[in-house]
Write a structure and sequence with these properties.
N-(1-d-carboxylethyl)-l-norvaline Dehydrogenase, domain 2; 12% strand; 292 residues; Rossmann fold; alpha/beta; seven-stranded mixed beta sheet
């Protein structure tokens, strides 16, 4: 299948490679000419045969809106736009309406996998009309992990990004729990090797997970996380999850507390946030701040 891909950063660049490895024809565009296959969005559209499929992987908010606006003016009826960034689900509804007025389809895709997605595949949570989703199925099949799991058509437009938002909210709470446990183990005199305690949990325990594996990776690199500053940013999805919980009167104490813990990390050099920062760097390549 032929597809255009806009945004070739850490995620988009690896997605292009994974799709090409699966035999798909990918035309990529990025504002960095060293990464781009074409010199403009118009050039990308010209390279694609109709009906076209264009996947957008740029930051949420203004950058995504700007790309959607430009695509709306140059695409043709029956073309499809996929927003694979971390957009808010309410933006999806607006984008779908804007594009539908021009006869252009829209699909939202929550994408998880970070810097490991090229090798392991990307978990995909998709929202949109079945007609458009079915046309894109070969691309989803190439991007997802091998096996029966890692992909879902979650529902109508916005469902994909809503599901990814909740996924990220859960991720916040899980990372916070590992971080709190790590700090307590580090604090007591009786535990001599916290890193090996974490490693012992990787098999046979109910808390084993990929995040735990990544925590061990981080501790192998820096046994006491002394190289990191205890500060962790939030990228938006945690806030949106809490806001959605308030709107729907759903109690989310663990997720809400983990979001507030991130805020507290901006005031002091928090030991727990060293682990959160290390985990975010391990799975997503997110930047960390040095302790010096």
């Amino acid at each position: 299948m032929q597809i255009g891909l806009i945004g070739l950063g850490k995620m988009g660049g690896n997605m292009r490679e994974r799709l090409r490895n699966a035999g798909h024809d990918v035309v990529g565009y990025d504002t960095n000419p060293e990464l781009s296959d074409v010199d403009s969005l118009a050039g990308l559209v010209d390279r694609l045969e109709g009906p076209r499929a264009v996947w957008v992987m740029v930051p949420a908010g203004g950058p995504t809106q700007a790309v959607i606006d430009q695509l709306a003016s140059i695409l043709q009826p029956r073309d499809i736009v996929v927003d694979g960034g971390n957009s808010r689900w309410t933006d999806d509804e607006k984008h779908a309406e804007e594009l539908a007025r021009r006869g252009i389809g829209f699909v939202d895709a929550g994408v998880s996998g970070g810097v490991w997605g090229l090798k392991n595949g990307y978990a995909l949570m998709v929202g949109g009309e079945k007609e458009y989703v079915d046309r894109l199925q070969p691309v989803f099949d190439a991007l997802k992990p091998e096996g029966p799991y890692g992909y879902v058509h979650a529902g109508k437009v916005g469902a994909g990004h809503f599901a990814k938002m909740v996924h990220n909210g859960i991720e916040y709470a899980m990372m916070q729990a590992y971080a709190e446990g790590w700090e307590l183990l580090e604090k007591v005199d009786s535990v001599d090797n916290v890193r090996e305690v974490f490693r012992s949990w990787q098999e046979g325990t109910v808390i084993r997970s990929w995040l735990l594996d990544l925590a061990v990776n981080a501790l192998d690199d820096d046994p006491h996380l002394e190289k990191l500053r205890g500060r962790a940013a939030d990228s938006g999805e945690g806030r949106w999850t809490v806001e959605a919980a308030i709107d729907n009167a759903v109690p989310l104490p663990a997720i809400t507390a983990s979001l507030f813990a991130r805020f507290s990390s901006r005031q002091d050099d928090s030991p727990q946030m060293k682990m959160i920062a290390a985990l975010r760097n391990q799975f997503g390549g997110h930047a960390v701040e040095s302790s010096k």
